[in-house]
Structures are given as C-alpha cells and as structure tokens.
Amino acid sequence: MQLLRLGVLTSTILLMASCGADERSQSLDPSARTRPVTVPATAHPPSSLSTQAGAVTRCEAKALALDAGRESDGSHIAASATVEITNLGPASCRLGGVPTVAILRPRGGRPAVTYSVAHHVVLRPAVLPVATPQAAAIHLAWLNWCGAKLGPLRIKVTLPDGEGTAIAPFNGPPAYDVVPGCGSRELPSTLELLSAYASGG
Predict the structure, then answer these.
(1) In 3D, which of 184, 176, 167 has the Cα closest to residue 83?
(2) Cβ distance 197 to 163 under 8 Å?
C-alpha cells in the first residue's frame, strides 16, 4: 500500500514538473504570446463617389442622349471610339460603375467583336447637369478587324445596376465608317473600355 502511495506521489510530482516546463517554454516563445489576428475584408468597400455625387440619383439610360463616333488612331490597327453623354432628364443625375458596350449592325445582329475592360481602366463617377452637352464620355479602342467592311453601325451602352440601355449611331465624326486594321486573323476583334464618365469634349 505504501509503495502504491509512493508511486502515485511520484507520478503527480513528475506531471506537475512537466506542466511547469511547458508553461515556461510557452512564455519564452514569442509566437505563443502574440498570435496573428486576421481582419476580415470589408464586405462593401466605401463608394468612390464624391459627397455631391452620392446625394444625386443615378442616371437612367432612357433619359440620356448618346453621340458616338469612331476614327483611326493613326496606327491602322486600332480605331478610337468615343461616346459622349448628355442628360435630357428633369434633374441632375450621376453615372458610376462599369458600363457594357456592344457594336450593332443597323438591321440587327452584331459583328464578331468581343467586349473587354482594360486592365488599367479609368472609372471616374460624374454628375450630369441637365441639358449640358458632353457632360460625360466613354472612351474605347476597337482592335483587329479582319472581316469585311461593315459600313454604318450602331453602339449600345448598358448601364450597371439595371439602369437600362441606350443605343445611338456609331459612325462619325468623321463619318467614313472606319474599322481597325487586321493585326492577326488568329486573334479576335476586341472593343476595349479605356475610361468611363470622364468629362467629354
């Protein structure tokens, strides 16, 4: 019986010594005292709109007039395109976010052109006063057309967040129905968004 008590006592002493050593080793280990804290990403980042823009309702496409044109950029491989936007609504409105742009044939359908957004696209929200010409604009580059000459075209701009679609002629100035040159038949023709809502002019 005494031997059993002595064994239990010895085991208890060894266990206490082991626990004490573990606590000392943890106190000497900096990683045990300071653990990294993960801060969750913000689910809804702050809007980039100014205070003025945030107080104005979003533009609806049905209240906007588009004036679109295309011309050679001088490289014979690309055509520069600009869509100037005027607010015809009853009050000022704001534009923001990424629009979707498509080229249309006059009688329906689309030429084989892929829409893309440039890696360094410039998106600058804008407030459009009523009936102020060229209050905002969308700038694009049309690259690598290897098909037949297209003639007159139209352009369709779809605003984000379900604010609607606007369509306008896409010919001039100057109205000579320019298309980009053929850089490679192995690559698609691309309409690339460069900037949106920067001031027109």
Answers:
(1) 167
(2) no
State which amino acid sits at residue 164. Answer: G
Phi and psi for 5 in degrees, rounded to 5? Answer: -60, -40
pTM: 0.71
Q: Is residue 98 within 8 Å of 146, Cβ to Cβ?
A: no
d(CA 65, CA 131): 10
Q: Block means of pLDDT (10 residues each) for the chain, length 201 residues?
A: 36 39 39 33 36 76 95 86 95 96 93 97 95 92 94 96 95 82 95 87 48
Distance between CA atoms of 188 and 4, rounded to whole angstroms?
86
- B/e letters for 123-151, b = 16+ CB within 10 Å, e = fewer, are bebbbbeeeeeebbbbbbbbbbbbeeebe
Residue 77 pLDDT? 85
